[in-house]
Amino acid sequence: MPAIRINNIDLGYDTFGSGRQTLLLLHGGLLSRRQWQQQVYPFSSRFQVITCDLRGHGQSGKSEGTYAMPLFADDVSKLIAALGLDQVVVCGHSFGGMVAQELALMYPDQVSALILAETNYGPSAGLGETLTALLGWWALALTSVERRAQISADRHGHYNPDAAQYLLMEINQHARDKANYLNIFRASISFNSKPRLKYLECPTLLLVGEFHPQSHKPAQAMERLIKHAQLHVVPNAGYLLNWDAPDTFNRMVLEFLEQL
Q1: CATH 3.40.50.1820 fits 3-126+192-259, yes or no
Q2: Which of 53, 43, 51 has the alpha carbon at shortest distance from 18?
Q3: pLDDT one digit per residue (tens) for the chain, 260 residues
Q4: Which residues contact 88 (CB under 8 A, 6 or more apart)?
Q5: How far is CA 172 from CA 47, 74, 85, 141, 144, in A?
Q6: Under DSSP, is residue 81 helix (H, G, I), strand (E, B) or coil?
Q7: Would you list the domain boundaries of the chain?
């Protein structure tokens, strides 16, 4: 699989298809570009599709020191430029959605539209949810790798056995390096785009899973704060909505892209 040297790490990526638009897919935290296996072929029949592994994930390199969202965004910006692309539509899930927001805020000329799935604008999305997330991540960090993987699979994969198995595989791989795991966590909790969302000018599609209500209020706030945003609920889906209801997720994304 190809990789490009960016910001002192090798960034793994794949490209599929061709078309008048390019769609860049950014996976969730502690996952990898394999998250998009049910989207790549439906999307690449109409568009060029790029998937990549974010820093510290999948087949991309890790780095010492503190991770922060601007670093992830700069990695992606340099990948876009290295591939000779001027503008892309960016679709990010959860942590990948935070990277997508940061990318669009830092490098607006590179982003023609955003698709933000099951993400939020940072810890200020809700004190209760933030404390729960903090305790959850630290508790997971103190458990065995196998237990961490099982907890994540039970929490987010119970709507779809295939999603549960996928999460088990990914978390088992990514949670083995505790320092890298906590680095990703710190980048997530230090992110706060809320005061800057008013500066986003590109069309934005917000997607949340019907069965993951924790994401609904932040998404509703984001819809109000982003000028050209529209929010849709994916029925019969939870946090990993692109696995729980892939056909519906794909249809909603394609309908949005056709409007651009």
Answers
A1: yes
A2: 43
A3: 799 999 999 999 999 999 999 999 999 999 999 999 999 999 999 999 999 999 999 999 999 888 999 999 999 999 999 999 999 999 999 999 999 999 999 999 999 999 999 999 987 555 445 444 544 554 555 454 444 444 444 454 456 788 878 877 888 787 788 889 888 888 988 899 999 999 999 999 999 999 989 899 999 999 999 999 999 999 999 999 999 999 999 999 999 999 99
A4: 21, 22, 23, 24, 50, 80, 110, 111, 112
A5: 32, 27, 34, 12, 10
A6: helix
A7: 3-126+192-259
Euclidean distance between CA atoms 33 and 171, whole angstroms: 13
Q: Which parts of the chain fold into alpha helices (H)?
A: 40-44, 69-82, 95-106, 127-141, 145-156, 161-174, 178-189, 216-225, 241-244, 246-259
